[in-house]
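Posting this for the archive.
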Amino acid sequence: MELARERLDLQADPRVTVVTDIDTRPFVAHCRQEFDLVIVDCYAKQSFLSSHVVSREFFDVIHRLLVPGGQVALNVFGYGGRDPVVEAVVRGLSSVFQEGVVVASVPRSANFVVYARRDSDAALPVTWTPDSN
């Protein structure tokens, strides 16, 4: 949480739950909370995602953890939108979030945000402004 406060300027908020330093599989398997937004960022000094984080089973559990209209966003590293990792995440997420998935490149990086919403069409939040750089 301290790293999030320091690097992301994340302020203390009782509505925000930040989970770090735990394997995603046991956390989501045993979690009974529901969330408005789940952000998955599993990179730590590496450029790959564990296979379980791009599996249909993982996305099924994420779907279950979201409130109706809840959102999921994944940080994905890839060498372009056709990168096999980006495509695997999009395929897996699309298989569970039938309303569709949105992919947005992060300017000046090799990162992409893969985004979906439970029970409603996928679209980037209106507060997100695409950067043309």
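The two ends are 31 Å apart (CA to CA). The chain has a mean pLDDT of 81.
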